[in-house]
C-alpha cells in the first residue's frame, strides 16, 4: 500500500496506548513483537497469506504488536513538527518540537533527529549507511520528484540499512539471521520477512515498473553512496513489495466498523513503516481489527469485535470514515492498492459478486422460459383441453409455489454457490448433496443440447439448408464467448435476451386479447368460443371424469417441465451483489412471473386455438411440415388461421432468441453446479478452480462438452432427440425439487432444535413446514407418475419407461453409492451446521459492509424503469 497520504488539516495527537493493559504490559515489558496466542498464519488461495484466529479472540484484546523493520517520519516541516520520530529504530519515539532533539552532525537532513544522545550513539552505524545518500540526494529528490517518491526511496534505503546492519552483526553473511519467534508459529522476522512479502513486478502496471526502474538506476544502485551489494532487479523487487506492504502512520486508530456517527478520521500522517508480521493482514471493508501505531511506532492490532475460531483477522487499508460507500472504497483499492472485487469473500467461495438485482431477475426469467412455454406446451392442449391445460398448470403451480418458498428461505439465509446442492450435504446427508448435485448438473447440461436442437428446428421455419452441424458449432461458439468473457458480460447478454422473452410473452398475451375481441383480419370476435366448442375439457385416453382427470394429469406433467425457476434464481446466489436483498426480491417476484408467464400462458393458449385444431394435431403427430418448429407453436398456428401476415415470422424470431438465451443460461447454471460440486469435493478439484476474474473455467469447458450431444440430430430426427431429452430432464427437475424440499424440512427442524427464531431469517416462507411437506409430497408424486401412460392397458413402451424413470435410478445409485463409498451420516437437526463453517458469517459481514454502498441508482430513466420492474 502506498505509504504517504496527502497531508490534511492539523489534528492534535492523542496518546497512543494499547487498549488492554494486561497485554500492554507484556508488550511494553518486552518492547518487541507480541503475537496473540490464538493468532496464526493462513493462506487464502486468492488473497495470499492471511492472519487467522485459530481459537476465538474476544473483542478488545490486542491481537498483534509488531516492531517496524524500517520507519521514516513524514512531516510538513521538521522544525515545527510535534511528530518527528527518533531515528533509532527500536526507539522511533514521537518527539515534540519543544523536546531536546538532536540533529545529524553532518546536517544530512532536517527530518533526521534523535531523542537522546544514547539513541544517537546506538544508531550510529545504521545512520552512517543512509547519511551520505541523504546528503547527496534528499534535497534534489524532494524538489524534482516530490514528497511521495522521496518517502518511498528513503524507506527503501532504511530497509537496506537494516539489512546491512543485521548482516554486519551476523559477520557479513549474505542473509540476516532471523530470530525464530518463541511460540514456534513460524512468523518470519527481519530480512527474511521482507523477502516473503507479497508484491512483484507483475502486481504493478508496466508504466509504474518502468518509472521505478528508472528511480533504482538513478538513486538506489549499489555503490559508495549506497553500499548494499544487491542487483538493481532485487532493489526493484523490494520497491514492488514495499509499496504493497508498507503502513502509513496516523495518530488515531483506523478500522472501527460500523463507523460510529461521531467518529473522527485517523488524523494526519506522520510516518511510514514496514512491519514483518503486520504486513500479513489483509484488507476488509468491514474489518474485525483496528490498527494504530503506539508512541514507539509499534503497530498495534486490536480485536474490534469478537473474532470466531477460523475467522480471518482483517484491518482496513484506508480510513473508513473518509470512504463511506462501497463504490469509492472499491475504486480506492483498485487505484491505490491494485486489487479488486475480492474485498470480502462474502460466502461466494471465490466467485465474484457482480450481478445486479435486475440481472439476477432476468437470469431467472431467462432460464425459466424457453421453447417449452411457447411451443411444447401446445402438445398437451389436445389432451386436456383449454380448461384442463389451465387447471393442470394451476395445480402444478401450487406445488412450484411451495417449492419456491423452500428455496427462498434457505438461499436468502445462505446465498452461496450451488446453494441447494451444498445445503443438502450439510443439513441432510452428504449423499443427498452428491446425488442432487450431479442430478442437477445433468438436468442443466442435458438442457443445453435440447435448446440447441430447438434452435435448429426454429431455423428450419425459414430454411432447412443450413447444415445441422454448422448450427450446433455456431451456437457453441456463442455460448462459449458469452460464458467465458466474465460473468459481467454474461449477465448483460442474458439481460437483453431475457428482455426479448418478456416482450414476446407480453406480446402474445396482448395478441390473444386483441384478436379475441375482434382485432384480426376476419374481424372475428371469438372470445372464449373454443372453451364451448369443442369444449373446455378433453376426456383423455378414457371416458368421462376419469378421462378428464387424465387430461389434467397430462397437463400437470407438461407443467412440471415448463414451470421452473427457483433453481435458476438460486444459481446466481453467490454472484449477486447484496445477495440477501437481491435474492429476496427475486424469489418474491417469482410469484408474479408464475402468474404472468405460465398461468396466463396456459390460459392464452387455450383461447387462441381449439384443442382439436387439425393443424395442431398434424403438427404433434409429425405429419405436417414444420412439426417441432416455431410453426408448431399454437400462437403461430392461430396467426396463420387468422391470416395474419409477418407476425408469425416475428414470433418465430423472438422464440429463437428466447431459446438461445435459455441455452446460454443453462451453460451458466451447469458450470456453477460443477464448480459447487468441486468445492465440496464431490467432483474433481480442478473443476473448482477459477481464473483471476472469478470464472470457473474448467467447469465451463466440461459443460460446453455436453453441447456435442446436439450432434445426435445429424443421425436422428430432431423431434425424436427433443422428446428423449424432455423426458429425461423432467424427471431430473422433479428430483431436484424433491431433494431441495427434503433439505428444507431438515433446515426447519434444525432451526427449531437449535432454538433459532425464524423471524430473524432474511426470508421467512409462508405456511411452513406445511408448504414444505406439500412440496415434498407433490414433487415426489409427480416424479412417480411421470410415465403413467405406459402402465395403461396396451400402452406399454420400454423406451418411454426408461426415459421417464432412468433418472430416478441414476439418482438412487448416485446417492446410495456415495453413501456406501464415503460412509456419510444422516445429519441430526441439533447437529446441523447452520452457519456452514464461516460462510454465513461471511455473508452477514458482506451484507453489513455493502449496505450503504449500493444506494445510488446507476443510469437514467430507462434503468430506473427496469429497476422498478426487476428489483
Ligand atoms: C499487505 S499485503 C497482505 C498480505 C498478503 N495477502 C500476503 O500474501 O502477503 C497486501 C496484499 O494482499 C492482498 N490482499 C489484501 N487484502 C485483500 C483482499 N481483501 N482481497 C484480495 N486481496 C487482498 C493484495 O494483493 C494486497 O496487495
TrEMBL record:
Classification via SMART domains: SET
Keyword vocabulary terms for this entry: Amino-acid transport, Membrane, Transmembrane, Transmembrane helix, Transport
Membrane-spanning residues: 362-381, 393-416, 436-459, 466-489, 495-514, 590-609, 650-674, 695-712, 724-749, 770-788, 800-821
GO cellular component: membrane
Positions in coiled-coil regions: none
UniProt cross-references to InterPro entries, sorted A to Z: AA-permease/SLC12A_dom (IPR004841), APC_YAT (IPR050524), SET_dom (IPR001214), SET_dom_sf (IPR046341)
Location(s) in or outside the cell: Membrane
Record domain SET: where: 37-318
Topology of the protein relative to the lipid bilayer: Multi-pass membrane protein
GO MF assignments: amino acid transmembrane transporter activity
Protein name: General amino acid permease
Organism: Aspergillus uvarum CBS 121591
Amino acid at each position: 500500500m502506498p505509504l504517504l497520504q496527502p497531508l490534511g488539516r492539523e489534528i492534535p495527537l492523542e496518546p497512543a496506548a494499547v487498549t488492554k493493559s494486561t497485554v500492554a504490559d507484556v508488550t511494553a515489558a518486552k518492547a518487541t513483537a507480541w503475537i496473540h496466542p490464538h493468532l496464526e498464519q493462513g493462506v487464502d488461495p486468492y488473497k495470499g497469506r492471511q492472519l487467522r484466529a485459530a481459537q476465538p479472540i474476544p473483542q478488545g484484546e490486542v491481537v498483534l504488536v509488531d516492531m517496524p523493520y524500517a520507519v521514516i517520519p513524514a512531516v510538513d516541516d521538521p522544525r515545527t513538527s510535534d511528530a518527528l520520530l527518533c531515528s533509532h529504530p527500536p526507539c522511533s519515539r514521537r518527539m515534540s518540537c519543544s523536546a531536546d532533539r538532536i540533529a545529524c552532525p553532518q546536517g544530512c537532513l532536517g527530518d533526521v533527529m534523535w531523542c537522546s544522545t544514547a539513541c544517537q550513539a546506538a544508531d550510529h552505524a545504521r545512520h552512517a549507511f543512509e547519511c551520505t545518500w541523504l546528503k547527496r540526494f534528499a534535497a534534489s529528490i524532494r524538489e524534482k520528484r516530490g514528497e511521495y517518491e522521496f518517502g518511498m526511496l528513503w524507506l527503501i534505503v532504511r530497509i537496506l540499512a537494516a539489512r546491512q546492519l543485521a548482516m554486519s552483526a551476523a559477520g557479513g553473511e549474505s542473509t540476516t539471521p532471523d530470530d525464530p519467534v518463541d511460540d514456534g508459529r513460524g512468523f518470519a522476522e527481519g530480512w527474511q520477512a521482507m523477502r516473503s512479502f507479497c508484491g512483484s513486478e507483475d502486481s504493478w502496471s508496466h508504466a509504474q515498473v518502468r518509472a521505478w526502474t528508472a528511480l533504482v538506476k538513478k538513486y538506489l544502485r549499489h555503490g559508495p553512496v549506497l553500499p548494499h551489494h544487491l542487483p538493481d532487479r532485487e532493489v526493484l523487487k523490494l520497491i514492488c513489495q514495499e509499496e504493497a506492504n508498507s503502513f502509513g502512520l496516523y495518530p488515531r486508530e483506523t478500522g472501527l466498523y460500523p463507523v460510529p456517527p461521531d467518529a473522527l478520521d485517523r488524523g494526519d500522517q506522520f510516518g511510514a513503516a514496514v512491519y514483518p508480521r503486520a504486513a500479513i493482514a489483509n484488507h476488509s471493508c468491514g474489518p474485525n481489527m483496528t490498527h494504530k501505531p503506539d508512541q514507539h511506532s509499534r503497530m498495534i492490532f486490536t480485536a474490534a469485535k469478537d473474532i470466531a475460531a477460523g475467522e480471518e483477522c482483517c484491518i482496513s487499508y484506508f480510513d473508513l470514515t473518509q470512504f463511506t460507500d462501497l463504490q469509492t472504497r472499491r475504486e480506492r483499492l483498485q487505484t491505490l492498492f491494485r486489487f479488486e472485487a475480492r474485498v470480502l469473500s462474502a460466502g461466494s467461495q471465490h466467485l465474484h459478486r457482480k450481478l445486479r438485482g435486475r440481472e439476477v431477475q432476468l437470469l431467472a426469467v431467462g432460464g425459466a422460459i424457453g421453447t417449452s412455454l411457447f411451443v411444447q406446451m401446445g402438445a398437451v392442449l389436445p389432451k386436456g383441453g383449454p380448461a384442463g391445460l389451465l387447471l393442470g398448470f394451476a395445480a402444478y403451480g401450487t406445488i412450484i409455489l411451495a417449492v419456491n418458498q423452500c428455496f427462498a428461505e434457505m438461499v436468502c439465509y445462505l446465498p452461496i454457490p450451488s446453494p441447494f446442492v451444498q445445503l443438502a450435504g450439510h443439513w441432510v446427508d452428504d449423499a443427498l448433496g452428491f446425488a442432487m448435485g450431479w442430478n442437477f448438473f445433468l438436468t442443466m447440461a442435458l438442457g443445453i443440447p435440447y435448446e440447441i436442437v430447438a434452435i435448429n428446428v426454429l431455423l428450419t421455419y425459414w430454411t432447412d439448408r443450413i447444415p445441422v452441424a454448422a448450427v450446433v458449432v455456431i451456437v457453441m461458439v456463442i455460448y462459449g464467448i458469452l460464458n467465458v468473457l466474465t460473468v459481467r458480460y454474461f449477465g448483460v447478454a442474458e439481460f437483453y435476451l431475457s428482455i426479448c422473452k418478456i416482450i414476446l410473452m407480453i406480446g402474445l398475451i396482448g395478441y390473444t386479447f386483441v384478436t379475441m375481441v375482434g382485432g384480426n383480419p376476419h374481424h372475428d370476435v371469438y372470445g372464449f368460443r373454443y372453451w364451448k366448442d369443442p369444449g373446455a375439457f378433453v376426456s383423455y385416453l378414457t371416458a368421462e371424469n376419469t378421462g378428464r382427470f387424465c387430461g389434467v394429469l397430462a397437463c400437470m406433467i407438461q407443467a412440471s417441465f415448463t414451470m421452473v425457476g427457483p433453481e435458476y434464481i438460486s444459481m446466481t446466489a453467490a454472484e449477486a451483489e447484496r445477495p440477501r436483498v437481491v435474492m429476496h426480491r427475486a424469489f418474491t417476484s417469482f410469484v408474479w412471473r408464475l402468474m404472468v408467464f405460465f398461468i396466463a400462458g396456459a390460459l392464452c393458449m387455450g383461447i387462441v386455438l381449439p384443442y382439436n385444431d387439425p393443424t395442431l394435431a398434424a403438427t404433434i403427430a409429425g405429419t405436417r411440415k414444420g412439426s417441432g418448429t416455431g410453426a408448431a407453436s399454437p400462437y403461430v398456428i392461430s396467426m396463420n388461421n387468422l391470416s395474419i401476415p409477418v407476425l408469425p415470422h416475428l414470433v418465430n424470431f423472438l422464440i429463437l432468441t428466447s431459446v438461445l438465451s435459455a441455452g446460454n443460461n443453462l451453460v451458466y447454471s451447469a458450470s456453477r453446479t460443477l464448480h459447487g460440486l468441486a468445492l465440496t469435493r464431490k467432483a474433481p478439484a480442478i473443476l473448482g478452480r477459477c481464473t483471476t476474474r472469478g470464472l470457473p473455467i474448467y467447469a465451463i469447458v466440461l459443460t460446453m462438452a455436453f453441447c456435442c450431444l446436439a450432434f445426435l440430430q445429424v443421425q436422428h430426427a430432431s423431434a425424436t432427440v427433443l422428446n428423449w431429452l424432455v423426458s429425461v430432464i423432467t424427471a431430473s427437475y422433479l428430483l431436484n425439487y424433491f431433494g431441495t424440499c427434503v433439505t428444507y424440512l431438515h433446515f426447519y427442524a434444525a432451526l427449531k432444535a437449535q432454538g433459532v427464531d425464524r423471524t430473524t431469517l432474511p426470508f421467512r416462507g409462508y405456511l411452513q413446514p406445511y408448504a414444505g411437506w406439500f412440496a415434498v409430497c407433490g414433487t415426489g408424486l409427480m416424479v412417480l407418475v411421470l410415465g403413467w401412460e405406459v402402465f395403461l392397458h396396451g400402452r406399454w413402451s420400454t423406451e418411454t419407461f426408461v426415459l421417464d424413470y432412468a433418472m430416478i435410478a441414476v439418482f438412487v445409485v448416485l446417492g446410495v453409492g456415495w453413501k456406501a463409498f464415503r460412509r456419510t451420516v444422516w445429519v441430526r437437526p441439533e447437529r446441523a451446521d447452520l452457519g456452514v463453517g464461516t460462510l454465513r458469517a461471511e455473508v452477514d459481514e458482506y451484507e453489513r459492509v455493502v449496505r450503504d454502498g449500493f444506494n445510488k441508482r446507476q443510469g437514467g430513466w430507462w434503468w430506473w424503469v427496469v429497476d422498478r420492474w426487476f428489483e
